[in-house]
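question for whoever is on the cluster today: can someone run the full assembly for these? two chains, 367 residues total. i dont have access anymore since they changed the login thing
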Amino acid sequence: MRKILSAIPLILYLESDRQDHIYYLKAGNDDDIHDFGYIDSIDNIDYAPLNGWSQTGKVEAIAGHGYIIWTKDNHFAKIRINSIYDNHIIFDWAYQSEKGNSELSVSANHF
Amino acid sequence: MKRKMLIPILIILLLITGCRYYIIDNDPPQIPTGITSITGDRRVTIYWNPVSDKDFFEYNVYRSYDIEGPYANIASVRSAFFVDHSVYNGVTYFYAVTSIDDDGNESDLSREDVFDTPRPAGYGAVIWDRMIYPYDAGFNLAIEEVVPYNSYDCHFYLESDIQIYIYYLKTGYGDNDIQDFGYIDSIDDIDYAPLDGWSQTGEVEAITGHGYIIWTKDNHFAKIRINSIYDDYIIFDWAYQIDTGNRELSMSANHF
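^ ran it for u. tokens below:
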């Protein structure tokens, strides 16, 4: 589940403000991103919301925060940043391979 | 003649009623479970699972200032909820519930330890873009007022990037903190402020429907939810915990 962020091209990438050592997650062109807030585990994100996407496509990378991605080809995904280091982050992720399905967790699958 | 007939009738009645016996019920009804509290502004709502005893009569609600007690009876109710209006914001109260049957037997106090700290809240507050209205851009949660964005009292303020019409919430003067809580249906969806996850930049994008948590420089926690964003202002709901260091912000079970 752990992967270096730069290994997922096109959907999002990591960028730093070198002066302040602040990191940002940026969505790729026409992808959307959403800060889900602080969570204990990536499993705390069970559904992608319909609303609340960033207009800038850029969110501050914060250890412990979860983020939801909506790809331009209509797939939803989630990540949780576990750690932030000098020039990289470590995160968990999950990707819904079924197009348009906003369900993102191993849950009861209630309809 | 009538008198002669009356005596046997009275004897028969006496025999019938005299043979009737009563069961003395000393068994208390079930102890209420599932006690949950909802934090409000000068109000705490307590609710629980109804007991199923056939001879149930009512519940007694008890309150204490300490988990160990003593617990004082503050109300008797028939329904499985109670709204405590006799509370002060910023004070922590501990609650317990008993059930009583028709014979006056009372159960033990509910075993869940439930506490709540009511706090002020507001709905439909407005702050303006500091690029245009700097004196009406900030908000102080403790005094519940709009303040200048650069005043010492400002906990957070609104600022736009005029070129692209994006708004940001920024923390006010001093060591205030903010973090995005994500999209929520209601401000009540935020129940606790987390210990970690605060923005290092002190600014977050203002997004309609998103909740945000504030940690003020004097160690109070608060939450807001943006209801609407307009050309140069936002409308938001908020709640502020006046009990220093208490991260409780909304409806929760508050169980230990």
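summary bc i know u wont read the tokens: The two ends of chain A are 27 Å apart (CA to CA). Confidence is low (pLDDT under 50) at residues 1-10 of chain A.
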